[in-house]
Design brief:
582 residues; single chain; Enzyme I, Chain A, domain 2; binds magnesium ion; 8-stranded mixed β-sheet; alpha/beta; TIM Barrel; Glucose Oxidase, domain 1; binds phosphoenolpyruvate; 23 helices; 16 strands
């Protein structure tokens, strides 16, 4: 049994066979071949190997001509590996004696070698493992052909293990079969992690390099509560899994009973709770669990889910679905937050080569540079807003100028619709996300111009602490409990109160029940969270009074280390709601 630890990002435990995806998302099947087809399969492997060797030789001479022989030497090393008689001998033995398919045999043999190199503790040799992966990729490309098996073509339950999954790939996962996933990369609030929550499947990210030795079909226990992945679990671990399944079922049943109750504190103050969604289909789950509306609709997933750019009508239909499912409840539609880790296939060219995407062309910046794209979305929002209770929100606003420019374009689009005689809503509230420290520093000035604020703690933490939210190498530095974050939230709440502007927290911090007493104690009365977390939020709110929350917030704000704040809040949660501590 191998035990791997990562970051728990979506709760629940799943057990099933692994589907290992290489860095290029090849599906590596654990297929056996019929005994009478063995020689044909061996020939297929030899043929693929010949083609790969030829390809490497071509690359070698191309690079030698262009850059010189010292660079071409990289390919000589690849060629040496590809021509190693041990590779041919061992792969052919696996096909002949164990009836493995060539794909599986290649993958198994090369991955075992890569893992050995990675485990030698020598950084130079560990790097060489990448060459082995490269050879594996080339061979699989030849063996499987150019067409990669689509993740959506699954026919049996699997647990996906991958180096990385983009938000687009995650959005397309078929949850009828994908029981959960774990990735080597990714951080606490990477969009892939957030999507796992939206899809309601357990997930662990940031495992670090560890999948080299794992083969498709091996049994995996994926523990999304504790961030652990067990590969080839022993009988005792499987038994533990069955017991915790039974306990989880009990917790789920208890939380279900909270679906219809109000989020009122013990002293009768109502806290408004809303759902965060990425897809229209999630509204139902939010309403069922007691959301009073949608506090954050991440519309960029319209671009990430499909292959073509959405038309005005695609936008309109999606928004109408959400609005209709919400009845008269408010829906905060956030304009597209494309860029960073959310790059649709059809816009990939614009982002290629960007070394620092979190600080690059993203979100409102992209909208303001591509006004034709932006206007299409604004038209659809304004038209749909005529059918319900809609608010519009601009993401990642860093300066007053950006907010004003976005609002001006919105007004301009309204004029167009007016001229065309198209039905639209002209008086919808226009707000902004507070995700950049500059927006907090200028909160007072922004408060005079916006109708509402929504604090996006995921990005606010990233940009305040200068920690990439998707990078597991710095995951331990990404801390919602950092005293600077608490102070920034307080600043926004105070500025909003002075101007009588509503303020919500819609980042993952409000879905993490540890932080709920703190947020309420800091003065927040609106929280927008993932659909799964809503019953837990209610449980905490119903177990606390405002003076108690204020005492907790005051004490938390007096501490000077993130780890002390988080430790203190966990202790308070354990006291208030012991059942919520997993
Ligand atoms: C945030 O940054 O907190 C937020 C809600 O936006 P996203 O996670 O989509 O970047
Ligand atoms: Mg954000």
């Amino acid at each position: 049994m191998q035990v791997r630890n990562g970051i728990a990002v979506s709760p629940g435990v799943a057990v099933g066979p692994a589907l290992v995806l290489g860095s290029e998302n090849f599906r590596i099947p654990r297929k056996y071949v019929a005994q009478d087809a063995v020689e044909v399969e061996v020939a297929r492997f030899r043929n693929a190997l010949d083609q790969v060797c030829q390809e490497i030789e071509e690359n070698e001479s191309l690079v030698a001509d262009k850059l010189g022989s010292q660079y071409a030497a990289i390919f000589s090393a690849h060629l040496q590996m590809a021509r190693d008689p041990k590779l041919t001998g061992e792969v052919e033995r696996l096909i002949r004696e164990r009836s493995f398919s060539p794909e599986y045999a290649v993958s198994r043999y090369l991955r075992q070698h890569a893992e050995q190199l990675q485990n030698l503790g020598n950084p130079y040799l560990a790097e060489r493992a990448l060459d082995i992966f490269d050879l594996e990729k080339r061979l699989l490309q030849r063996l499987l052909g150019e067409s990669r098996e689509e993740l959506s073509n699954l026919t049996a339950p699997v647990i996906i293990l991958a180096h990385d999954l983009t938000p687009g790939e995650t959005a397309r996962l078929n949850t009828d079969f994908v029981q959960g996933f774990a990735t080597e990369s990714g951080g606490h609030t990477s969009h892939t992690a957030i999507l796992a929550g939206a899809l309601g499947i357990p997930a662990v990210v940031g495992l670090g390099r560890c999948l080299a030795g794992v083969s498709g079909g091996q049994t995996v226990i994926l523990d999304g509560d504790h961030g652990q992945v067990l590969i080839d679990p022993d009988e005792a671990s499987l038994e533990n899994f069955r017991t915790s399944e039974a306990q989880n079922l009990k917790i789920r049943e208890r939380l279900q009973s909270l679906e219809d109750v109000q989020a009122d504190t013990q002293d009768g103050v109502h806290i408004h709770i809303y759902g965060n969604i990425e897809f229209p289909s999630e509204v139902e789950q939010c309403i069922k669990r007691g959301a009073e509306g949608i506090g954050l609709y991440r519309t960029e997933f319209l671009y990430l889910g499909g292959n073509a750019e959405p038309t005005e009508d695609d936008h309109y239909q999606a928004y109408c679905r959400v609005i209709e499912a919400c009845g008269n409840r408010p829906v905060v539609i956030r304009t597209m937050d494309i860029g960073a880790d959310k790059v649709p296939k059809q816009l990939k060219d614009r982002f290629d080569g960007n070394q620092n995407p979190m600080l690059g062309l993203r979100s409102i910046r992209l909208s303001l540079q591509n006004t034709s794209l932006f206007r299409i979305q604004l038209r659809a929002i304004l038209r749909a807003a005529a059918k319900g209770n809609v608010q519009i929100m601009f993401p990642l606003v860093a300066s007053l100028l950006e907010f004003r420019q976005a609002k001006m374009i919105l007004m301009d689009v309204m004029e167009d619709l007016e001229d065309e005689g198209v039905e639209y809503c002209s008086d919808l509230p226009v707000g902004m996300m507070v995700e950049v420290p500059s927006a907090v520093i200028l909160a007072e000035e922004f408060a005079r111009e916006v109708d509402f604020f929504s604090i996006g703690t995921n990005d606010l933490i990233q940009y305040t602490l200068a920690v990439d939210r998707s990078d597991p190498a710095v995951a331990s530095l990404y801390r919602a409990g950092d005293p600077s974050i608490l102070r920034l939230i307080r600043t926004v709440v105070e500025a909003a109160a002075r101007h009588d502007r509503p303020v919500t927290v819609c980042g993952q911090m409000s879905s993490d029940v540890r932080f709920v007493p703190l947020l309420v104690g800091l003065g927040l009365r609106h929280l927008s969270a993932t659909p799964q977390s809503l019953p837990r939020l209610k449980e905490v709110i119903r177990n606390i009074s405002i003076p108690e929350a204020e005492r907790i917030a005051e004490h938390a704000c007096s501490l000077d280390l993130a780890r002390d704040v988080e430790h203190y809040l966990l202790g308070e949660l354990g006291r208030l709601c012991p059942d919520l501590i997993v």
